[in-house]
Design a protein that fits this description.
387 residues; six-stranded parallel sheet; five-stranded parallel sheet
Amino acid sequence: MTTESPDTGRPTGDQMMARLQAEQRPERGRLRIYMGMAPGVGKTYKMLEEAHRRHDRGTDVVVGFVETYGRRHTAALLDGLEVVARRRVEYRGVAVEEMDADAIIARHPDVALVDELAHTNVPGSALEKRWQDVDRIRDAGIEVVSTCNVQHVESIADAVETILGVPVRERIPDEVVRAADEVELVDMSPRALRQRMRHGNVYPPERAAIALDRFFTEPNLTALRDLSLRFVAGKVDDQLEGIVSERGLHVGPVTERVMALIDESVECRRALRRAASIASALHAPLLAIAVETPAIGLSRDRRQNMQSNVDYATDLGAEIIRGEASDLARGLEEVVRDRRVTHMVLVHRPHRGLHIGRASLHDHLLDAIPGLEVHLVGEPAPSGHEH
């Protein structure tokens, strides 16, 4: 039972204990992530370069886990840095080396380097994922510098599977990456990365040839690069919007955001493609919203069609927003305002009265939200070519 102190202004014993525990609890360590569009862009190299800069300034830096993949230039950067010994785990008769989070916490440096944030620990480990180990290290007050590729971010993984045609098994929850204190994109043109692969600087020659022909084609890398740019742009966008909100600044959206409305129609996919194209050109986050209203009753087939379009939007890399509203126009207006959307993409249906309010939806949004740009996507020309 907690006792209350008389009205003397003095804290109770329980309050003093809680205050002492709070003072003893270390401040949570920061998380910095180097993100890339694909293996070989130089994430680990950049991380090690940063470690040397910090070490030279007197910061206590250790290597918690770095994977060089036999790349000699990367391995050379380990010289001069303290490496925390890995723990060895027996799995199916094979000794596997994993990061020793307990040893890092016991060593308690200022900064720990932890490569491959999406890595899945060997079965039998205390935690399933390396990002969970990183959480523990940060809880101990240690800053972590880490790396990951864009395809491992949960909301992007399905789009990458569609692009590359291979499953993405190791994934990081979006909130882990978006909550990082800093995310820096390690960028490289697709052509330059392919050259690096050809020269054997990423994979051994035989593996590089397969990767170049099957997965890391120039169109695939271009798509992956676009997803990376868009994700990091979204992270910066969130930070800017957060600053505006915290300071109570009454200004319009400070960065671009593109949204498309999802419905059950075939034409919807053209609007989604157009929205994705605009988002790509602006390096802006892509959102897609599916709103259900009492006025738009969906049969089973139409509901399935809408879900199919939602899946299509997901494959394009969109963040999906679902909602219900008694009035489509007002419901959409509320979301556009709340998410500070700058570009709205709609299907234009000038002569259809079945979708209540849809014909004047763009007029309502333009009248209600100053500065919003509405893009109307018409039906394809009779020849089937899109203009």
